[in-house]
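batch job 7 of whatever, protein = Leucyl aminopeptidase
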Amino acid sequence: MTPTPIDAWIRPDESVSAIPLVLVDSSEFEATVASLGDAVRRACVANGFRGENGRTLGVTLADGEESIMLAGCNRRDGLFALASLPVRLPEGDYRLDPRGIALEPAQAALGWALGAYRYTRYRKPTRPAARLLVDQDVRARIGSQAEAAYLTRDLINAPTQDMGPAELAAAVRALAERHAANYREWVGDTLLEDNFPTIHAVGRAAANDRQPRLAMLSHGADDAPHVVLVGKGVCFDTGGLDLKTADGMRWMKKDMGGAAHAIALAGLLLDARLPIRLTLLIPAVENAVAGNAFRPGEVIRTRAGLSVEIDNTDAEGRLVLCDALAYASELKPDLILDFATLTGAARVALGADLPALFCNRDEIAEALLAAGTKTQDPLWRMPLWRPYLTMLDSYMADLANSGSSRHAGAIIAALFLERFVPESTAWCHLDVYSWNDTERPGRPRGGEAQGLRAYLEFLRLRYG
């Protein structure tokens, strides 16, 4: 899938006719307006404008030769200070004017781009978003990040009939072709032949044109530090035979959100040309209901050789991930990073905006948290509390796929995944929501990218 181009909203500054956009913070209103002259002050009084966040006001200056647009914003909103303006301002080209409050240019432009996004595959927008003109350096700095966020959102927003396992794998293939990377795919029974039994088990009940598969991209020199990205690609989750309720199933098109994040992050790393060897693994399945669906009480022998008793078919994400993580571990990488819309328990604990980070290396977790703070892309570390491993005990297999208690669901899921990564391998798991339930500036309702900027910053510092 080709992401929505950000050039529709963020353009290199080649226009001389752009409208000057003067940013006004209500806390600095008097000083800003005083510097603009009496005509602006009178217009503000007449229209009751005092720099309120999100309000705009067009003003013609005293000489009658220049019109400017005042826009209220709150500089404390940081990345999202301008995020509401693309859909609030009249259509046109704008350029940040130095007479207003100063914001960091790249941060302001990225927030603008995030606010301009709309998913338009099935419905045309009611009106075009306003465009911000920036210099070439700013455009270069934010372009890949904005496009990665757009791609993540586009993939997640696509309904299941247009985003099944084959289409998700096609997104990996397209990325490989774009960067001249190697691509390999295991489909259907070839998963069994090459020992990916849990990916096959979860996806085997889907229709013939939606067979389970594992897509792999690889790129880079063999002697470079090896980073493996793994993303949960459950394109729709009915819950399997442990069927979800109607409400619980309604938005399960987004259960491939982890895969969308891993694909977008791989694109960011390839664009950045970090001196690493990169492998991307996307297990893509549909957890459907049919006569051959995997059943509660079955025992599956995983790629790692561990036997897993199926306690709940709705705990399927960890099953497709465990084979991919086992394969990733066989590659003996420097670092494994996995992304998954894995548990509702993480949302109960942290809400929609904070992805839950689990990591088996303190120094890596601390560096990721610091990167999240720096890029305004927050993460929250959760513990791999190993005494809870007893909740995964099975009387007949090495472990069960879900806990014996409803307590600590996100931790239990992460502990399950950890069993498939050797202690000698650095590994991080991010439990993401991948979704905005409501409309907010810069965060439109629907699919959302979370943690991408933080991970990119961390990996640049670690390998760049």
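notes: The CA atoms of residues 391 and 403 lie 5 Å apart.
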